[in-house]
Amino acid sequence: MSTEAVGLRAGLRLKSQVCATEVIVIRPGTRPLSLCCGGVPMLGRDASGAAETTPVAERMRGSLLGKRYTHPGDDAVEVLVTVGGAGSLSDGETDLVLKEAKPLPASD
Amino acid sequence: MSISMLLSMAAAAFADRVALGRRADGITFSGLERDANAGATLLREDAAGSVAFIGQNSPLLPTLLFAGAAAGLPLVPLNYRLPRDVLRGLLDRLDAPVVVADSRYVEIARSTGHRVIAAEEWLSAARRTEPVPGPEADPGSAAVLLFTSGTTADPKCVVLRHSHLLSYVLGTVEFASAEERDCALVSVPPYHVAGIGSALTNVYAGRRMVYLPDFDPARWLELVRSEGVTGAMVVPTMLARVVEHLGGANADCPALASLAYGGARMPLPVLEQALRAFPETGFANAYGLTETSSTIAVLGPEDHRKAIESDDPVVRARLGSAGQVVPGIETQIRADDGSVLGPGATGELWVRGEQVSGEYRGAGSVLDADGWFPTRDLARLDEDGYLFLSGRNDDTVIRGGENIAPAEVEDALLTHPAVAEAAVVGVPDDEWGQRLVAVVVRREDAKADAAELRAHVRGLLRGSRTPDEVVFRDELPYTPTGKIIRRHLVAWLSPPVAG
Question: For chain B, which end, N or C, has fewer CB atoms within 10 Å of the first or last residue's CB respectively?
Answer without folding.
Answer: C
